[in-house]
Amino acid sequence: MRQIKKIIRLMQTGWNAIRKPLVISVRPLHVQIETNNSCNCNCQTCLRSEIIKNPENISFENFKKIIDVTDPVFVTICGFGETLLHPEAEKMFAYMKNKGISVNFTSNAVLLVKNYKWIADLGIDTLSISLDAANPDSYKKIRGVDAFPQIIEGIKSLQGYKKERGLSLPGTRIQMVIQQDNINELEDFVRLAKSLEIDAAYFQVMNMMGLDNRRDNLASALTPDLVKEKIMAAREAAKSLGVATNLDVILKKFEQYYHKENVKKFYPCFYPWYTLMVNLDGNVQPCCSFGGPNSGVYFGNIYQEDFTRMFNNDKFQNFRRLLKRGERPYECCKLCVPLTLTEVFGVDKFVPKFYKK
């Protein structure tokens, strides 16, 4: 029954993404939820320490409410915090899996060595590990903690446990935000994925929204030619090793990533027709690019409002209207290179196991 429902929702969402109505009668196919905003890393690309003064955890009851009222087919758990620091993480994940939801969550994996068994036993679909480096020294500089060996141990423990139990889940990927302190490690990152039997290596071109005062430390040594050269070399390494990546997507849209202000071709955004982001305080944003309090743009509160009305309120309708006209109404929209519709529905290549059952 759940599989039939999933197929119907996929068809409805695909049709909405093509037609782009201002009012949507179906609930979002995908929801991203922030469960906490505390963290055990201090990454140089993250604004959490400047924005979050009093870290909190979402209550289990509020988490249940988000799941129940949005009724998603797919959920991503990600936000300003480290997912595995939440004291009820296992309970929340079990609730989603018992409802037949496909779950992807992002983690820095510092605590993976203590949590890998329940992650595998619950059948969590995808574990996305924010790693950013291929060696301990770069890792410590970029992420602010000396935890690289511990993370590798956790990954190996997870992979060994899956083999021991004959489990295929979770699918795994390691992630890297490209910056000047790791620009020479892209090929090594691919090789690391291969050596750890990781399903995919995912690369992100750094979004500088809110990071202008850190530009010298993060990107002053990067030029488009250098970045493109390193990406092309990593892509060839990935192909020769059989490692799935999103590097073809980045190269296809390279001009959009590096010359946003001069680009005439704006890839249309489909996000408000199939997804939304819910912060732990219940504030709702159209997608994760709005960055919680980083942008300060909210379209409603899921704890305080009827969800169906909120998802089609004036703010959502106006946002859909502007995107439908090809406009980019917010600063984060102007800095974003959205996935195409084909890429959205073919994303399983670099979000392994998430969309396939």
State the helicity in percent bands: 40-55%
Shape descriptor reads: globular
Largest sheet: 10 strands, mixed
Number of alpha- plus pi-helical segments: 16
Rg, Cα atoms, Å: 20 Å
The pLDDT mean sits at: 90
Give, in spatial order, the strands making up the sheet with the most strands.
7-6-5-4-3-2-1-8-9-10
Low-confidence stretches: none
The overall strand count is 10
Which descriptors would you attach to this protein?
single chain, 12% strand, 16 helices, 357 residues, 10 strands, alpha/beta
Q: What is the strand and helix layout of this fold?
A:
Layout: H1 2-19, E1 30-33, H2 48-51, H3 60-70, E2 74-77, H4 89-98, E3 102-107, H5 112-121, E4 126-130, H6 136-143, H7 148-165, E5 171-178, H8 186-195, E6 200-205, H9 215-218, H10 224-241, E7 244-245, H11 247-252, H12 254-258, E8 275-278, E9 283-285, E10 300-301, H13 307-311, H14 314-324, H15 331-334, H16 341-344
Parallel strand pairs: 1-2, 1-8, 2-3, 3-4, 4-5, 5-6, 6-7
Antiparallel strand pairs: 8-9, 9-10
Structure description:
The protein has 357 residues and is α/β, with parallel strands linked by helices. It has 16 helices and 10 strands. The protein has helices at residues 2-19, 48-51, 60-70, 89-98, 112-121, 136-143, 148-165, 186-195, 215-218, 224-241, 247-252, 254-258, 307-311, 314-324, 331-334, 341-344; strands at residues 30-33, 74-77, 102-107, 126-130, 171-178, 200-205, 244-245, 275-278, 283-285, 300-301. A 10-stranded mixed beta sheet has the order 7-6-5-4-3-2-1-8-9-10. It is globular, with a radius of gyration of 20 Å.
